Amino acid sequence: MKKISTFFERLLSKVTVVKSLVVVMLFSTLFWVGCYEWRNIIQPDTATVNSYFDVFLSAQDDGNPDNDWTNPDLIDYGLLGILLPNGWTVQDSVHYSIVCTDPSYNNSGILLYSEARSQTLNDSIPAPPGYYWWGSATATEASMVYFDSLYIEPRIYTGSQAGDYFLRYAIGDIDYWDRNPAEDISDPIPITLIDNTNVDEFLSSENISIYPNPVTSVMNIKFNKYRNELVEMEIFDLTGKIVREAKILNGLTTIDVEDLDNGIYFVKLNNGHTSSAHRIIIN
């Protein structure tokens, strides 16, 4: 996963075998800690042309037994890459948050578009025809010490051509040698872009209010314009697990969430024709 640069290879050739082994062990410790992978990606199945949608990403330890998240040197600039169809883009200032097993190390910030990182991704992970890599880096160094999980919330703007597409997501970090632009890359995730002429707006964000948000015990789901049809509701936690299900048959429905742990959740609504996802915070 991680390679020692040519510079260090030349450096090591000039020292004794014993010193070389010591140096290699020290640097391998730095290189092999801090390995993570995507845990969950919540992306809608459909979107409309010349519009936008939100995606919710979470990452976790990749399970490598050599990982040591207590290393105090696990501080670096992070990288997020998104493979997009031509004509699509991502809203700048993508928010991220890092949760650590020791809460005193929790940290958050923003990822900013980077032309250099986009080029690195496109050079090292060639995009198929009609697609390109959008790359971003954290505005400041992020700490992965005592890392437990990572959450990123990009907003993606669609193009003007309806059709069937897919997106991919890459996560990595920018070390001193730019050794590798991505620790993990998702499989292609399909999405259908439809013309918004005569699109059913029943489950759109404009027609739905979910409040209060943040919520402590009871959440209300209100349709500004309601019609008599069944809507299936599911609440997901950040791991993708369904923690609450309900059937909505009224313009205003109350959902009890008092027993759920504090944190970020996603409410998915589906009427069999379209669906929408909404972010809530329980505290």
CATH-derived topology of the largest domain? Immunoglobulin-like
> What are the low-pLDDT stretches, counting only 5+ consecutive residues below 50?
1-34
Class based on secondary structure composition and strand pairing: mainly beta
CATH H-level name of the largest domain... which superfamily? Answer: Immunoglobulins
The CATH first-level class of the largest domain comes to Mainly Beta
How confident overall, as mean pLDDT?
A: 83
- Proportion in β-strands: over 45%
Looking at the overall shape, the CATH architecture of the largest domain is Sandwich
Tell me the distance between the termini. Answer: 39 Å
Net shape: globular
User: What is the domain tally?
Assistant: 3
- How much is the radius of gyration in Å? 22 Å
Helix content: 10-25%
**How many DSSP-defined strands?**
22
H/E series, N to C? HHEEEEEEEEHEEEEEEEEEEEEEE
The number of helical elements comes to: 3
Largest β sheet strand count, sense and barrel closure: 12 strands, mixed
